[in-house]
Amino acid sequence: MTDLAILYEHPAWFVPLFAALDRRGIAYAALTPDGDWNPADRRPPAPLVFNRIAMSSFLRSGEHPIFHAAALLDHWRRTGAGIVNGPDVLAIDSSKARQLSLIAGLGLAIPETRVVHRAADVPAAAARIGFPLVVKANIGGSGAGIVRFDSAEELRAAIADGGLPTSIDGVLLVQDYVPARNGTITRLETLDRRFLYAIDVAGGGAFDLCPADACVVPGSGIAMTATTPSPDLIDGAERIARAVDLDVGGVEVMIDDRDGVARFYDINALSNFVARPHEVLGYDPHDRLVDYLVARMKDL
Length: 300
Hints:
- 31% of the residues lie in helices and 25% in strands.
- It is α+β, with helices and mostly antiparallel strands.
- The protein folds into 3 domains: 4-89 and 292-299, Rossmann fold (3-Layer(aba) Sandwich), CATH 3.40.50.20; 93-109 and 178-283, ATP-grasp fold, B domain (D-amino Acid Aminotransferase, Chain A, domain 1), CATH 3.30.470; 113-176, 2-Layer Sandwich (Dna Ligase, domain 1).
- The strands form 3 sheets. The protein has a 5-stranded antiparallel β-sheet.
- The longest helix has 15 residues, at 285-299.
- The protein is globular.
């Protein structure tokens, strides 16, 4: 048995992580959630398990592993394994509604939102929000399951035609469309609940703002630049990371161009880090992530 197992699903996102581990000569077991597992088996695959299950996995397979992996990670934790971004983190990662409740509970601003589970409830929620608005899938990823509506008529037509987004858990968010200042959102990455780095992402109105090498498509118009956020934004991200018990993950925020308010709106526990890190940041954050994993293994 190695000291580290990595549970992952995307075929390309974790190549940089595996390369960083290989450079350090650290043995690890690369596991996928396919196959079966025995609830009576009390042997974890390693003393430390790193959860790298992506919420966008449902886009790649209708038989996605999200809920299966949540149970598996909980099982491994019960057998005594340490879990990096464990099942409680995955539970928050897989619910935008829970994320927004947690963020608002910390006294941080969020986009005005209503949570529903029936299409019939969307028009009343939209009337309270006002237009333009977006309807979001509660479990998304890579910008999936987000549709903008500019009028009640447009929304009613989409409901009648079955054109609303769908979420694999049946929950939808009806949310104010926030005009982000300069068309830019800021993603603050945290490691061990502390600020690591931040990038500004300008997507030209796109909802898919995944920053990793395997996401960025040439000609997509998505621009990423390193930034130093204000102390208030860093403090907000760190408070969120502590509240979630987030070992490694990103927090996304945008400045509302209407009133200048910073509105936090997404917690992403995947953190596959920015594409071309040496060019954008001047270093590879995977090396610091490996330092963290090594320290966790020593503590076991």
